[in-house]
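Pasting as-is:
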Amino acid sequence: MVLKSIDVWKELSPAEFRSAYYEKGIPVVIKNLSHTWPAYQKWDWDYFKDAVGKVQVGVYNNTKSDARTPVNKADDTMLFGEYIDQVRKGPVELRIFLFNLFTHAPQLAQDFTWPDAYLKSFVKRFPMLFVGGQGSVTHMHFDIDMSHILHTQFFGRKRVLLFPFDQQHLLYRKPWEVLSFANFEKYYDPLNSKLDLETYPLLKQAIGYDLVLEHGDTLFMPAGYWHHMEYLDSGFAMSLRALQESWTGKIHGAWNLFGMRTIDTMMKKTAPNWWYDYKKKKITSFSR
């Protein structure tokens, strides 16, 4: 893989952001975008435990999906407060994602401001929280709805690997899914990396970005960008999603959600092993 540094700005005006990054589909980190939000100072483990500690949440481990795993199916459930207690005690490879805490604690929506000057068509019903214990991994994927994302890290550090959507074949995308067959876990650590370049040789041609997000950093991920994330520390982040402005982009996202995912889920229920083998053979034949 060829990995580049991402552009990082302390301040970036909406006009500069749109002309240099949004319109060109290039990711960027803006360090101070969230610093005026109350959340920047207020959000910590105790604050969330008091607000939503009694809410039942789905948790996910580091195991990659197999032939029968539906999209976004949780590995277990527990009270959010119990999860926070585990995370605070030490490394725990469990994470929570796509958790809309604002449906349970709507007052928390007052803790940040929607950056409407940067992106249009925010899906304001669904600001999402992502939480992970030290060592937890979000495996390589792209977001199924093809939205643009502003992803702000509020606590801890997170390592991120990014690739443009059009490199999906180099990343060995699973047909009919948003996931990669390859395991990028510890990609940055030669001694412990699970990246298998012999099985997936086209990965050597992929060109992407490698970065670390810290408290307050906001990452812009253009629609369809592939991303793999590893929690270097226990922490949490919030994603604000914005629909693509073009009808082509909106239709692509709708097809993924209601067409592609429905077909994939049905096949996993009716013929999981055949469906998985079909995907493996198709992607293997392409890479030869």
